[in-house]
Amino acid sequence: MVRIDGRQPNELRALRFELDVQKHADGSCIVSLGDTRVLCAVTVEEQVPRWMRGSGRGWLTAEYNMLPAATNTRSNRERVLSAGRTKEIQRLIGRSLRAAVDLGGLGERTFNVDCDVLDADGGTRTAAITGAFVAVRRAIEKLAYQRSPIISAVAAVSMGIVDGEILVDLNYAEDSSADVDCNIVGLASGGLVEVQGTAEGQSFSAEQLVQMVDAAQSVLVEMFEAQQGAIDQK
To answer: Which of 159, 103, 100, 105 is nearest to 130 (CA)?
Structure first.
């Protein structure tokens, strides 16, 4: 099967990172996954939420937003209360990053991670997770810990079943027609953080789920290498 953009079923879109793009952020990057682009920025506060004070542990939290011109039709800015989808994605990003970092090693600091979608062509949440880790890593490097609190790199990829075939890293057109949509978050150390799978059209089997996870893990290795390559260039 040749896909809409000419890729093979198991082929990732071009993954690129532009680091240190915001002057006042402690760590930042723009991650590009095909035509999807997300600005990820980290600001560090020398305090933690009230319920964590005195614990000696740090905290990491994330916010996600789709900028008005990120899609082909303008969307309104979310102002006071975030929509349900946005809250779900924010929580996913936060969980994924916390799995990659030893909160006890952060000290009593809060890492605020902001992910703003500049251009959306599918896979915005997976791109946000993948780019946010790079931004967090940069912020941690600047703080010059004696022992890095990074446990493992984390990245994410979207999977789907379209016309009975498993596809890696769906763009918007593929995602819109997929029978099954699945997002898989994994660690470079080999563990899975989260698997989100939904049947949009017809149901999928346990065997197909295993096949999607296997295909995702192969692609995640490429993503970890791209993350490390971008960091090594700095």
So the answer is: 100
